[in-house]
Amino acid sequence: MTVSDSNSPLARREALRNRRDQLQRMVEIRGVENRIQKLFAEGHVRGSTHLANGQEAVSVGIARSIDPDDVVTCTYRGHGHALALGVTPAGVIGEICGRTIGCAGGVGGSMHLVEPSVGLLPTAAIIGAGLPIACGAAMAARARKNGRVAVSIFGDGSANIGAFHEALNFAAINKLPVIFVCENNLYGEYTRIQLSTPIEDIALRASGYNMPGIIVDGQDVDKVAEAMAEAVQRARRGEGPSLLEMKTYRYSGHSRSDPATYRPAGELDRWLKRDPINIFADRLIAEQALSPGGLEQMQAETNEAIEQVVAEVLDSPAPDMREIFAHVSGESPGGDQRWSFWGR
Amino acid sequence: MAKIWTRQAVLRALDDAMTDDPTVILMGEDVAAAGGPFKVTEGLLAKYGAERVIDTPISEMAFMGAAVGAAVCGLKPVVEIMFIEFLGVALDQLTTQAATMRYLSRGRLTAPLVVRASAGAGQGFGCQHSQMLDHWVRGTPGLKLAVTSNARTTYGLLRSAIEDPDPVVVLEPRILYSEREEYEFDPSYRIPLGRAEVARQGADATLVTCGAMTRVALEAAANSDANIEVVDLLTIWPWDRKTVLQSVERTGRLVTLEEATASAGWGGDVVSAVAMEAFGKLKAPPHRITLPDAPVPYNGGLEARYLPSAAYVTEQVAALISTNKSPAPWWRNAA
To answer: One fold for both B3-182 and B197-328?
Structure first.
């Protein structure tokens, strides 16, 4: 499938069973992130955006390892996760451009992507906020005895906020079916990890909560998926939470206004040599699931499809002024269109 | 009719709600095995089990956030914040996450949780365990905020809060837990959120209040030569403009009685609405009776001075009515 397909988020998610589609999704994430940067320069994006180029294997590795009715919380660096979980490029780019076609109707923006049909709660603009919320989703799943799990995706910066400690402790004592996924991209906003954190491996902290702490090569989508699958099975068996640390790297700065001049010389180049898309493409070529040159063709097709989506988005209307007042509370206009996780 | 303690009304409301709706769960520090620090959850663990009545670690951020996630996924969590000050460490989950869930999902998700918290002064708990702090929450779009004033309103507001499709904070003035009154429980009794009550009718001035100050207002009115109308707001966000405006239009005078510091109290909003919408009906300037802008003192004599007494309220209202000018607060002369 290509990004211009008007498939539902659920259909896009289910497509991830196919390895070639997994690569295509990683290529799509990279293309969308690059295009968003350009849309910013072109004046179509307000406020800020937080790109995750370089971290595509984490997003797709997680998405292919859990079911659409497992619940995911995520931080504001979430474009890639939203796309991987199934949100359409029009839903993501549309939201970032503040249009009705966006997944939150244009009222949320880059930091607030959402799609209940594939388990994605609104991504949070507050560091650490999603970890306790995932605990509650896991409590609800256990109350229903339906075997569902909750996944909380956050960065290395979140490992130093109180919510991290409280949530891991809470999940562990209650043996909740939660998988805490830390994307360690070495930078919390503008600050390198050794200046904020006295240990190199966040996974070490799991021992303080008596849960497995696993270090994972976050540039290898298969390694991400294997580690996820093990943690998910453990959670579904009722054995409690896990902390997975994805070693990865953010090619861009913290946000669009950050040129990342604080990075040591040569660091970016070293990580570019382990690019997650190239690693996976080479593997698929070895598996004969992709022809030599297939990646380049896929990238060209995907980027072309993204251009079509961008045209569609820029053609799509801005939300009506009435949307200011819609869905503030149950008494507000807009109606109750409540999504019910796992049926009633 | 039986005499019941206000704390029994909390317990009964929780108990009835849990019986009626199997998705209602309770979470908080010491609410299960110990029956609650104020004994308002006694017996519920035995009746409903540990999956529904949950003792938490001292981790407000964790259990408030867990309540958000559980609510989004179909449960109805009622969390207890032992003293309202403890909400400070968990405020993000309430005012930033729960409050925007419906908005950001365009009506697809909501977080119908209830936060119950004991609040208020008068018992010598000192400045970190005696505030109302409603201003931390009031005015936040997506949240509702109610304050109980006796056993009946405690039952009626809690039942409505638990049935509401959005997050609701219910402040329970701690000093009222050990008050008794004649009240017969009715499992179908509800007080709709957003609606005030005229607790006493009068013609000379409208005294708008809530929480523990409601009984102070009623006592002040009973001891007054003037004929004072008392309005118990019950829900202070969003508050019932219609009932207040109708009353002020009849009496021509507005006095707010607030257990809140002068610069943070909800009365500022009430006064501004009345001044803007009923200015022509006013015989006197709107007047606010509040706490001074100072922490709650521990010493008993100081705390009694700090809180508005019925005698002080009677005196302030009498001065307003006789002069049609706003009388100075006690601390202007004391300072």
So the answer is: yes
